Every structure is written in structure tokens, then in C-alpha cells.
Amino acid sequence: MSSLQELYGDMILDHNRRPRNFGPLPDRSHSARGDNPLCGDRVTVNLRLADGRIEGISFEGVGCAISTASASMMTEALRGRTVEEAQQVFARFHRLLTGEPDEHADLGKLEAFAGVREYPMRVKCATLAWHALQAALASPVAAVTAAAAPAGGPQP
């Protein structure tokens, strides 16, 4: 295994063991729950939006290492970004896992999930929190299931 693969693997394991931004967000303005009935992953993404920017973001729930690490790293990557920037990061992340990744996407630590594309059943684990994010951005209270999330591209 290359040192880069080891680093990425260690990063995913670290975020699974010590998830960042895990827990309720008492002053949230938007929230959405995502469920993956195939494996039992459940996540709720909480947002505090102000002036078109993600001022606060957290997640709650239970899931596998990939699901938990993805949610944790998503919260770190999106805090402080505009809603439009968050949509762009989601689209690039989704392409990394399901389509033709953009070589110039500059996803930083999120590139640790590039290997997930080799395991199609795990793509839904890695994208569950991201689809819940999309639902939360679209409506103050929402829910999605991994089975309903499109496999070939980002949700509108």
C-alpha cells in the first residue's frame, strides 16, 4: 500500500473514531435526515444559515466508518462557505465517487474517499450525509433515503 493510501486510510479512520462537529446544533435553521436502509446508516445534518452562508454545521446519527468519516469531513469542509460554494463542493465530491473526477477539483482531505469508487455499495455510505445536506439546503426540514438518491449524478 502506498504512503498516500495509508495517509488517506488513516484520515478516514481518525474521523470515524473522533468525528468532528458531531452532535446537535441548538440554533439550527435547517435540518435533514438521511437513511440508508440497506446498511442501517442514519444521519441528520444540521445547519445554521445566515446571509447565504453556512455559519454552523453538525451531524448526528450512526453509521459505518465511511459514512461517519464522510459526514465529519463534510462539516469541516463546508463551515463558512456560501450555499453556492457548498453545492459546488458537493458536485465535485459526487463526481469523485461516481463519475469522472475533475483533476482540478482540489477537494483537499475529501480526496481520501477516491478509493470508495471501487466499491459501488459503499458510495451510498460516503454520500449519505451529502444528500442530507442537499435536502437541508432545499428545505428547512427534510429527509432522504440512500435508495432514492441518484447514483449517476448530484441532486439538483
Walkthrough of the structure:
Mean pLDDT is 89; it is low at 150-156. It is globular, with a radius of gyration of 14 Å. With 156 residues, it is α+β, with helices and mostly antiparallel strands. Strand 2 and strand 3 (53-62) form a beta hairpin. The protein has helices at 3-17, 65-78, 83-98, 120-138, and strands spanning 30-36, 41-50, 53-62, 141-145. The chain has a single domain (3-145), classed as Alpha-Beta Complex (Sufe protein. Chain: A).
Key attributes of the depicted protein:
single chain; 156 residues; alpha+beta; Sufe protein. Chain: A; four-stranded mixed sheet; 4 helices; 41% helix; 21% strand; globular; disordered C terminus
Short overview:
By secondary structure, the chain is α+β, with helices and mostly antiparallel strands. The protein contains four helices and four strands.
